Amino acid sequence: MVVPETWPASTWLVVAWLLGVAWTDWRSRRIPNLMSLGAWLVGLGVILLTGHSLLGAPASSALLAAGVALLATLPGYASKHLGAGDVKFLVATGLLSSWPLTLICFTVGAGLGVVAGLLSTRRQLLFLIVPAACQRPGTRFANWAANPPPSRHIPMGTCWAAGFIVALLTHAAQR
Fold first, then answer.
1. For residues 18 and 165, is the Cβ–Cβ distance under 8 A?
2. What is the pTM of this model?
3. For 102, which of 47, 49, 112, 168 is 20 to 30 Å away at the CA?
């Protein structure tokens, strides 16, 4: 198994970018253009210069991943369930990697998005799982569950960033 310590510098650069996007999206529910479109420029530049993505996949795989990411996220954007930053971010992950990694990223991230949505908008459902001692009025958990966050937007960039890190670890485990 390839452990993360043996990853090339380009993989660590992508992981650092993913963590930056995840943190920014989690805190502000926005992914700045500089982070997403900047990654597009890096991804396209590396593809044009080397014929491979930043993570070493063939250019055809990276371009296919970007196209599939765009097709998969545009309906969510058109229905106002995804922001433009989410769409640009997932396309950037495709340009930096390959279609299998982007597919894993999309799938795992969507699952995490469902969990995040349940936790942020349906906190009262947790009372079915949590012991009765934590449910007394005035406890920290009861106050948290009774006051959902002001924004109902799910930070999908954060979810997809986590999904991409899972994809990288999965890919490393298969080598």
1. yes
2. 0.80
3. 49
As a whole number of angstroms, the distance between CA 53 and CA 111 comes to: 26
Is the Cβ–Cβ distance between 21 and 157 less than 8 Å?
yes
Amino acid identity at 68: V
Q: Which two tokens stand for residue 69?
A: 């990411």
pLDDT range class, residue 32, cuts 50, 70, 90 = very high
Alpha-carbon dihedral sign for residues 162, 164, 165, 170: positive
User: Which of 47, 165, 44, 171 minimizes the C-alpha distance to 108?
Assistant: 165
| Whole-number Å distance between alpha carbons of 119 and 123 | 5
167 vs 79: CA distance, rounded Å:
27
155: exposed, middle or buried (Cβ count in 10 Å: 0-12, 13-18, 19+): buried
Return the domain boundaries, the chain: 8-174
CA–CA separation, 85 and 156 (whole Å)? 9
Average pLDDT over residues 20-49: 92
Query: CA 59, CA 141: separation in Å to the nearest integer?
Result: 49
User: Of 150 and 50, which is predicted with more confidence?
Assistant: 50
Model confidence pLDDT, tens digit, residues 87-123:
999 999 999 999 999 999 999 999 998 888 777 665 5
Name the nearest CA neighbour of 29 among 157, 147, 148, 161. Answer: 157
